[in-house]
Structure formats: structure tokens, C-alpha cells
Specification:
Layout (H helix, E strand, L loop, with lengths): L18 E6 L2 E6 L4 H7 L6 E2 L6 E2 L12 E4 L2 E5 L10 E6 L13
Parallel strand pairs: 1-7, 3-7
Antiparallel strand pairs: 1-2, 3-4, 5-6, 5-7
């Protein structure tokens, strides 16, 4: 494991997939086939997946099973992709999502 690695050392009890590299916000992140994008991000120490459309506050994994939609990211140019249920693939490019979708105005405040 590398110095910044946050994966649990399984001492060989769990067989990981092949090592691959994905890109998150322009940074190369090592991961393994079979992991989700959310798992790869958390293992790399990245906890912010998107920004709230109204306040800009950071959002990350909440449910981890695809129900809450808190972990939406831009993946390979596609917006609103749930990182917790999206398997990684070699060369994948993911970016922190800002607002409901990149290039779309945030939801208006009804105050």
C-alpha cells in the first residue's frame, strides 16, 4: 500500500481486481477493477463528490447504495452519475459536480 492508501489491508484474504488508473479532477488516482468510483475516491482520501446547488456546500457519500443521489459526479462528460454504484474502468475521468448539472443554473432560492 502507498503512504496515502486508505484501503484495509486484507493480508491476502480478499482478491482485488487488476490495478488501473482513473482521473479525478485532473489527478491520476490508482484503483482496482471491481471497485466503485466512490470506493476509489474514499481510498484516495477524497470526500467531496459534488457541491450543493443552493449553498455550494460539499456533498459526499451518504447511503452508499444509489438511493440518495448525494454522490453525483461528472463522469466522462456525463452529469449526475452516482459514484457509489458506478464501477471504475481504466482511463475513466471524473470531476466534482457543481450544481444540479455542469453548465446548468443552480436551483433558485424560494425565500
Amino acid at each position: 500500500m502507498s503512504a496515502g492508501e486508505r484501503r484495509v489491508d486484507t493480508h491476502g484474504a480478499v482478491m482485488r481486481g487488476s490495478p488501473i488508473t482513473i482521473e479525478i479532477d485532473g489527478e491520476a488516482v490508482p484503483t482496482y477493477l471491481g471497485e466503485t468510483l466512490a470506493a476509489a475516491m474514499l481510498a484516495a482520501g477524497r470526500r467531496v463528490f459534488r457541491r450543493s446547488p443552493r449553498t455550494g456546500s460539499p456533498r459526499g457519500v451518504y447511503c452508499g447504495i444509489g438511493i440518495c443521489y448525494e454522490c453525483q459526479m461528472v463522469v466522462d462528460g456525463r452529469t449526475n452519475v452516482r459514484a457509489c454504484v458506478t464501477p471504475v474502468r481504466d482511463g475513466m475521468r471524473a470531476n466534482t459536480q457543481r450544481g444540479p448539472a455542469e453548465g446548468v443554473s443552480p436551483v433558485p432560492s424560494w425565500r
